[in-house]
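Request: Show me your protein:
***
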Amino acid sequence: MNSEKALERINYFLKNNPVMIFSNSCCLKSKMIKEEFDNLNIDYYSYDLDSDENGEDIKKVLANKIKNSSLPQIFVGGDLVGNYEETLKAKEDGILEEILKSLNL
């Protein structure tokens, strides 16, 4: 998959999923952040990059877009919240709740 197609796919995911998690299926932090959203009763879409033949290409383009290659990466309302630690901090600080409420989630 070329970079342009990968970026189109990323943008499609972000546009069509209010809470979007880019993750790896075997990553503990990816599993833990999904549990956090489950505990909040917030629907999300998770794209496991290691479960798709184009996942590595998408991961490279995503890393370039956000200037960070770590996973998971969480987006809410199309905007980057951050990785696992950054998202937990946003939750603890009440920022995540404000963002979710502003989107009626």
Remarks:
- The radius of gyration is 13 Å.
